[in-house]
Structures are given as C-alpha cells and as structure tokens.
C-alpha cells in the first residue's frame, strides 16, 4: 500500500476509533471530548498554541544541536582513545539508565526556572543513540579498506574523512529517527516543571484546570510535531546517504 493512501486511512481510522471510544464509554466531554470539539478548540486557540509550540520547538532544536555536538565529539574521542572509552562508558551507561524525570527535577531545582535545564534534559534524552550509533559505525568499518588506505600512506584525517565517516553516516542517519523525535519529548518533559510557556506548561495547566479538551488538543499538537520530526529525519537520511537510495 502506498504511503499517500496509508496515512489518510490511518487518520480516518483513528478518528473513527476515537468516536467509538467516546460512544462506548459515555465519558463526559470534560474528560473525553469528541474529536470535533478538540478541533474547534485548536482553531480557536491556534495563536496561543502556535506561540507555545515555537517555544518547545526552539528548546528541542537547541538541545538537539548540543546533543549532536557532544555525541560526535565523544564518539571520535572514544574511538581513537580506548582508555577514555573505558573511563567514560560507565558514565554514559549511568546517564542513560537514570530516570529522566528525576534528573529533570534535579536540574530545574539546581539551575532555576530558565532555559538551561530544559536544554540539558533534551541533551540527556538525545545524545546516547547518536553516540552509540556513530561509535558502532566507526568500529564496523571494513578492515581491508583501512589497510589499503594505510598502504597508500593516507593521513589520519584522510582515513577519517574518506573511510570512517562515510561508513558511520548510515548509522548516524538512523540515530536521528530516534533522537530527533525524542528531542520533542525531552523538551515537553522539561517544561513540566516550573515552566511558564511551552507545550509542557500547557499540559500542566490543562490538567490543573481539568480541561480535557485542551489537554487533548495539546497532545495532538505534540503528536503532529513529533511526526513532523520523524519525517524530517527520514528526509535528512536520504540527504546524508544518497548512495544508499541509488
């Protein structure tokens, strides 16, 4: 089935399922509003939603840029400096397995109600898949190709540029499918605590006000934003590895 028909069928089935659940459960609209009520609210509050979406997207993009910078730097350092990898791996594993909610609360209490802790949350959520994939791409390069370049007296930079980095690019592109989408989740999570703007703040406000329609509306915006991030990561993968498409 072609994607141009798959997505319309999915959206139609999701709407029908939503109506079906509303009809079966008979929950009040304040708890489980029907789709048309949520869509009306989105159109009515679109400027407010758009402004907070921009805040969340800005946090996600900035944190994701820092996550890429940190992950690329550490992956290269871990590959060339094995003792550094042995020392740094426990820290990476510990940060990966710590509950991000508890880390987010600690960061926000430590650094206050500013953009810095929210960016750090995005970095912590996103950097590990990029680091792990890049390191795997560097380590799984063809040893015969490396030996041939060394026979031709290639410098370390030439070996990295023409062998290691092209081999790691597919792994790097695949990491974006997870990390870039997770950046939206990390930004929303960081806005849950003491934020005064952003989609995470709107979720907290809607829960405190018992506004089910607004809560569903914000969740729909977050879902659309994450889906757009996923599609963008697929487009970026085609741009980074055009030879795989050919």
CATH class identity = Mainly Alpha
The CATH architecture assignment turns out to be Orthogonal Bundle
Question: What are the secondary-structure elements, in order, as H or E?
Answer: HHHHHHHHHHH
CATH topology: MetI-like fold
Number of strands: 0
Structural classification: mainly alpha
Largest sheet: none
Number of domains: 1
List keywords for this structure.
single chain, about 250 residues, mainly alpha, MetI-like fold
Protein model, in words:
The chain has 246 residues and is mainly alpha-helical. The protein has one domain: MetI-like (MetI-like fold), CATH 1.10.3720. The protein is 85% helix and 0% strand. Helix 9 runs antiparallel to helix 10. The longest helix is centred in the N-terminal third of the chain and has 35 residues. It is elongated, with a radius of gyration of 22 Å. The relative contact order is 0.13.
């Amino acid at each position: 089935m072609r994607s141009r028909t798959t997505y319309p069928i999915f959206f139609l089935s999701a709407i029908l399922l939503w109506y079906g659940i509303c009809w079966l459960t008979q929950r009040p609209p304040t708890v489980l509003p029907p789709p048309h009520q949520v869509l009306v609210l989105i159109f009515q509050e679109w400027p407010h939603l758009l402004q907070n979406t921009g805040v969340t997207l800005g946090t996600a993009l900035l944190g994701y840029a820092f996550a890429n910078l940190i992950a690329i730097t550490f992956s290269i350092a871990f590959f060339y400096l094995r003792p550094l990898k042995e020392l740094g791996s426990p820290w990476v594993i510990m940060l990966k397995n710590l509950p991000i909610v508890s880390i987010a609360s600690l960061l926000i209490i430590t650094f206050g109600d500013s953009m810095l802790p929210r960016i750090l949350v995005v970095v912590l959520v996103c950097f590990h898949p990029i680091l792990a994939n890049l390191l795997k791409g560097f380590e799984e390069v063809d040893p015969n190709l490396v030996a041939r370049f060394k026979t031709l007296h290639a410098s370390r930079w030439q070996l990295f540029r023409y062998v290691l980095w092209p081999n790691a690019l597919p792994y790097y592109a695949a990491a974006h499918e997870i990390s870039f989408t997770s950046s939206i989740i990390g930004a929303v999570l960081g806005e849950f605590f003491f934020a005064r703007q952003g989609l995470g703040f709107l979720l907290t406000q809607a829960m405190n006000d018992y506004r089910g329609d607004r809560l569903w509306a914000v969740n729909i915006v977050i879902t659309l934003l994450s889906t757009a991030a996923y599609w963008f990561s697929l487009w970026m993968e085609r741009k980074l590895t055009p030879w795989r498409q050919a």
